[in-house]
Amino acid sequence: MIAYNPEKGREVASCDAARACVLGIGGAGANVIDRIALENMVEVELVSLNTDIRALTNAVAARKVQLGREITRGLGAGGDAELGLQAAKDAEPEIRELLTGKEIVFLCAGLGGGTGSGAAPLVAGLAREMGAFVVAFATMPFSFEGRRRVEQAKQALADLERSSDMLVVFENDAMGKLVVSKAGVQEAFAAADHLVGQSIRAVTALALQPGFIRIGMDDLKAVLGNTNARCLFGHGLAQGKNRAQEALKRAMKSPLLDGGKAIDRSGSVLAHVMGGPSMTLYEVELLMAELVKCTGSDIRILFGVGADKKLGEHMSVTVISSIASAGQVFLKEEAGAKVVLEQEAARDDAVDCVRAEESSACLGESDDPEPGSFTEDEMEDEDSAPEQPLLVPGEEGNTGEQFEMDLLCDQSLQGAADETDRGIEPLVDVSSDAQSVERADEELRQEPSESMDGDDPTGAEEQAGVLMQLLPKVFGRSKRKRKEVAREPGESGDMDESAASAEDGESEYQRQSPLAATEQIAGEENGENYPVIAALEDVSSEQEIEVSAEATRPVMATVSQQQNKGPDAEGDSVGCNEEMPGPGRLAESGLQGALALDEGKAGRFVKGEPTIVDGEDLDVPTFLRRKSVR
Amino acid sequence: MARGKIYVGVEIGTSKMCVVVGEVNPDENIKILGVGQAPSRGVRKGEICDFETAKTCLHDALVRAEDRSDVMVRNVMLSVTGSHVASLNNRGSYLLPEGQDELTEEDLDEVESIVREVDMPQQNVFLHSIIRHYYVDGQEGVVNPVGMMGSKLEADYHIIHGVRSRIQNSIRCVREIPLEVSDAVFAPIAAAQVVLGRDAKISGALVIDIGGGTSDYVAYADGVVSASGCVAIGGDHISNDLSVVLNIPLREAEKLKVREGSAEFYDGPEDQRIVRLEGDNTFGGIDVDRVVLNEVIHMRVREIMEHVYSEVAASGALERNAGGVYLTGGSSLLRGIDTVVEDVFGMPVRRTNAVFVSGLNATFENPQYATAIGLIHYAHMLDQEAPATGPIALFKNCITGMLNGVRCVLGLF
Q1: Are the beta carbons of A205 and A197 closer than 8 angstroms?
Q2: Facing residues of B23 across strands?
Q3: For the CA atoms of A239, A243, A247, A248, what is the dihedral angle to 10 degrees?
Q4: Residue B49 with chain A: CB contacts under 8 Å
Q5: What is the spatial distance between Cα B198 and Cα B201, in angstroms, rounded to a whole number?
């Protein structure tokens, strides 16, 4: 009998580690990169890209790229995606150099912020343009982070989807499920980062590591290629007696898969099993049998097995599946039982129409911005404000259940706000002729993340029925949502009329005129996020300080009061548009000098004479230089 | 009461200042009388970067040493190190003048001056030129050729040199205390004196002194120095790595390294994997995964050792090394470091300290003091090698000896 030698049996890796890299864009991306570096998950180059020099300096990644050296001058993008995009464009040569010769690029970014939302689609596009297979991991913001942010994230997600080959989306709201109750906020974020890191590890393992039954990028493309770039992802790791079942159970529990309910039954599923030397065939068989139970037997399963000594006694399973149609997306999100998600979606509709109003007003294509649009704009600003104090206990109490409870409260509050939304509905000029509805539908399909709402009402009703079974408690909510869905096309028709000419495939922020962008900053971001800078910029501008005070003050007044007050505030912010003290302007004014990028992380040795041997700064931790000597 | 000669060794280290007072008895045993130590500030990578602070620290250490040993210190041996110190082996040959066939002391001096004509930067000075072997008319391995017959004398020297100003900085620091510096010695040369026995030197051995800021090494083969040098990375770098990677204060990182750190990959039980670092009012506290902790340490230790290895291997000194590696210095106390070193060098590794001394046990059993104790041995060796010849020199020696040995033993009064 010839003894089996696993060493010999191994085939050559199809893509060596030097041709892959992991990019972390923005603060959230950097966190994930840090987590990957600290847990030594993957053996590929880790690069951190950021506008914020302080965050960049503290990042663990071996390689760092400062975005927008001239534009933000070492400050962050301040939640302004436009600025993030400009910053990335500014650093394009550097990014190109970074991506040269890379065959597979993993990209992780937290959407919603400035750098993540702005730079990530561009970087993904660049990578793809240079011939790399782009796998993007995007994190959506918590719903409590405010509408604007969620809206921005959705927008960026749509862009990212276009510019990457594979997109895995993590909803922060869903991440709440990951953490056991009584876990700290820090731990919750760490768990979220960990999940993202794990998925990156799993996909790199797929692509780079040899296996007995190999699954490569080709299979991955086969699973994902036919539809849009978004995919479902689950990863489980377990050890012990029942590790096969446990691993699968954990994979299926993944917030993205949700017990396999989300898997598209007509499509295909990729399952990759990894284990240490002790993994047995029986275990693999068991695991696959379990998987079929979850997915149904009709499904096409692409199956791979690999061995990794690093895993030791552990066994891991990765399940990847495509989202076949918009209906499936809907199913996923609803079956996900994420009350918040839905609410978010519902809110998005509102946001969408507001955005439409806004852009139409700003583009100046419609004759006059109606007073109604202003009030609603104000409304929306105020809507998000009362959420914040409510969510503080959620953050501190930080138990998973409490967290959801809070979000439920939040939702009911939101519901109340929506009621008022509907109250002022007549103010909005709704032109709901059939033609515009049709066009709105068309347009909405271009943005698949939102297309679920734009699909035919019967489909939505069907899905709502599924939801009803799953979530009897929130049925009322979903019904209302449906109403909104019904309302939505009419409103988006408005948007259609105003901005349809510039619609074809271009990103939202590209569509928006610079004025729109500045207004957005002046109206919200600037006042809230940069009070200090606002004060710094021009103390003599009283008007401006007034505005920032307005924005930062906790809003206690009733909606009607705010409504009355609205036009005034709006007038103020419009008035100060000219001296807009956003970070971009700040850079132009040259008030803040550029912060130098501290390349080295030599700690206490920074000030001293560096110890450089063979062009390597030995004062920087070996661990970080990743001089992989193991 | 018969007294031996008293020597004082001073080490200006990166992590600590150390003054060791020792006595060499007439039977040539070294006895440690007292040790003064003070945490070091103003020193980085073995070299002074803040003169005044370093001076204050050194003064603290000196006061403690004088206090404990009851010796008033005047004259000291000083160890120097730093990345600027370099070494090389050089051979020089000298043809005896016509008509002379017996080798004399003058001929040895002559050949030494020839050997010392080496290519080195202008600002550098010799720290040591250590004779390895003489060759008389092709005969190898002559230890002392004086009195031998021959016409051609060759000599192999191990030359250690460093930047003059940087060596002088250390000397000046000591002089301003004020103390007299009788000689400056490259640190690992001193440490090797008390770490290696005669047998080990002959069979070949490598001493690595891993200190706070530097890792110094010296290799012996056939009883003589074959290579020496300094890699300016040490235990401080390990702490700094932990501080940077784990984002904790340096002080906590140092504590963590000493208490929990190991250079070996963690392979212990899962439930002991997490180390809890308690916070105080300046530091929030953190949970550290031993896997990460040990890996950071491992990577750094391995890198240090790889640098040492490549330097030693380049000089060819590892070929005749039967004794293996001797680890000393404060960082050699790190758990698991021997495994890593063994892995890199592929030869037996032992941790060691100053073994050929007596006196305060706690002192010489700590590898941190190997260099300072070695200085005493080295000073004694120098005295023996170059005994005073003329009566004036003898008188001078006597005076310095008296000054050196003035004892303020209270019991005497």
Answers
A1: no
A2: B6, B31
A3: 180
A4: 608
A5: 5
The CA–CA distances, whole Å, from A167 to A91, A136, A250, B313 equal 24, 5, 21, 50
Measured CA to CA in angstroms, residue A264 lies from A234, A269, B364 at distances of: 14, 8, 73
Q: How far is B160 from chain A (nearest CA, A)?
A: 20
User: What is the full per-residue pLDDT of chain B (413 aa) written as tens digits?
Assistant: 456 789 999 999 998 999 999 998 888 788 888 899 999 998 988 889 899 999 999 999 999 999 998 889 999 999 999 989 999 998 888 888 888 888 888 888 888 888 888 888 888 899 998 988 899 988 888 888 888 888 889 999 999 999 999 999 999 999 998 899 999 999 999 999 999 988 899 999 999 999 988 999 999 988 899 999 999 999 999 999 999 888 888 888 998 999 999 999 888 888 888 888 887 777 778 888 888 899 899 999 999 999 999 999 988 888 888 889 999 999 999 999 999 999 999 999 998 888 877 777 777 788 888 999 999 999 988 888 765 555 555 566 556 556 555 544 444 44
Instruction: Read off the tokens for A422.
Output: 């509907």
Distance, in Å, from the CA atom of A305 to the CA atom of A326, rounded to the nearest integer, reads 31
Q: How far is A613 from chain B (nearest CA, A)?
A: 9
| Cis status, amide bond into B269, omega within 30 of 0 | no
Which residues on B lie below 8 Å from A605 (Cβ)?
44-45, 237, 240
Torsion of CA A510, A514, A516, A518, to 10 degrees: 130
Interface contact flag, A618 B232, Cβ < 8 Å: yes
CA-to-CA separations, A607 to A553, A604, B158, in angstroms, rounded: 43, 7, 34
pTM for the predicted model, two decimal places: 0.49
* Contact B260/A at CB under 8 A: no
- The span from the CA of B96 to the CA of A483, in Å, is 112
* Contact (CB, 8 A) for A176 and A255: no
Query: How close, in Å, is residue B248 to chain A by CA atoms?
Result: 11
Facing A623 at nearest CB: one of B45, B232, B295: B295
Q: From CA A262, how far away is CA A338, in angstroms rounded?
A: 13
Task: Identify which of A20, A76, A77 has the alpha carbon closest to the alpha carbon of residue A52.
Answer: A76
Task: Inspect the interface and report whether the beta carbons of A40 and B245 lie closer than 8 Å.
Answer: no
Task: Determine, for residues A629 and B44 on separate chains, whether the beta-carbon distance falls below 8 Å.
Answer: no
- In the sheet that holds B357-359, the strands lie side by side as B180-186, B75-80, B5-12, B16-24, B30-39, B357-359
Flag if B240 and A629 touch (Cβ within 8 Å).
no
Q: How far apart are CA B265 and CA B246, in angstroms?
A: 17
Burial (CB count within 10 angstroms: exposed 0-12, middle 13-18, buried 19+), residue A578? exposed
Task: Give ipTM to 2 decimals.
Answer: 0.72
Residue B241 at interface with chain A, using a CB cutoff of 8 Å: yes
Q: Give me the residue label for tokens 């110190």.
A: B85
Length of chain B: 413
Residue A38, CA distances (Å) to A66, A197, B246, B247, B309 in order: 21, 10, 9, 11, 28
Q: Cα–Cα distances in Å, from A214 out to A207, A307, A321?
A: 9, 10, 17
| Shortest alpha-carbon distance between residue A451 and chain B (Å) | 44
Let me know: does B210 contact B330? Beta carbons within 8 Å: yes
Q: Which amino acid is at A178?
A: L
Which of A58, A605, A621 has the CB atom closest to B300's CB atom?
A621
Cα B91 versus chain centre, distance: 25
Tokens representing A258?
């949700």
HSE-CB at A252 with a 13 A cutoff on CA atoms is 18
Q: Which residues does B392 contact at the CB level (< 8 Å), separation at least 6?
A: none
Strands A612-613 and A616-617 turn out to be antiparallel
Which of helix, strand or coil describes residue A272? strand
Using the Cβ of B41 and the Cβ atoms of chain A, whether some distance falls under 8 Å is answered with no
